[in-house]
Specification:
Blueprint (H helix, E strand, L loop, with lengths): L1 E4 L2 E8 L4 E5 L20 E5 L16 H14 L6 E5 L1 H11 L7 E5 L9 H17 L9 H11 L11 H8 L4 H4 L6 E6 L7 H10 L4 E5 L6 H4 L1 H12 L1
Parallel strand pairs: 3-4, 3-5, 5-6, 6-7, 7-8
Antiparallel strand pairs: 1-2, 2-4
Length: about 250
Amino acid sequence: MKIIINNLAIDYSDQGDGPIILFLHGWKDNSRTFDPLIPFLPNFRIVRMDLPGFGNSETPDASWNLNDYIDLVKNFIKKLNLNIDALVGHSFGGRIIIKGLAGKNIEAEKAVLIGSAGISKTNTAKNFLFRLTAKIGKILTLIPPLIFWKRQIRQKFYNKIGSDYLNAGALRNTFLNIIGEDLSAAAKKITIPTLLIWGDCDTQTPVNDGKKLNTLINGSRLEIIIGAGHFPHQENPEKVSNLIKNFIQ
């Protein structure tokens, strides 16, 4: 289904009956990432959306920051008149939930963060490295004969620092706006019951990030899925869905 939010066409799905769960996916992903969980959550109303720039939703003309995504989710909830029982966010979706809840822009009874992003290791230093690398890549590829290997050279630069920048396409500046924002202070402001689900083999948002969020979010609970990586909801959907179901009920 399609709905217009903030002048953008947003693709979403709304299925089932019962307590409402709103799922928010990660960066370079879409709402279908949660497909494996759905069969295990039959007694819930499941609402999912493709965030702007991902899946079948429209891409913003200008670069966005995290607040823009929060505002869109807030207006999506308002337009569908949803009273959210639980927000579930994976990776980038977790960023939106953490800051949205902290600023009281998004409301829910409970929150579930799966391999959530938001804990920066070197904070502004890391963001500076991303931006510096992007500039160096552009300058070097203007020099003959390097211009003929432009994409290959830039790819090596971005791979070296583990960046999704080159593959972000029209969202490159949005990516830079978001990755450097540390949400530790925001996490401390979350007051609703929060469940953290992490894969112990996660290399994108390491389990130590989950442990830190566990200490920052008062009363939160951390569940570690042994043998899972950054997508525990796909690798062990039955375990993850049971955690979510028991937590909500």
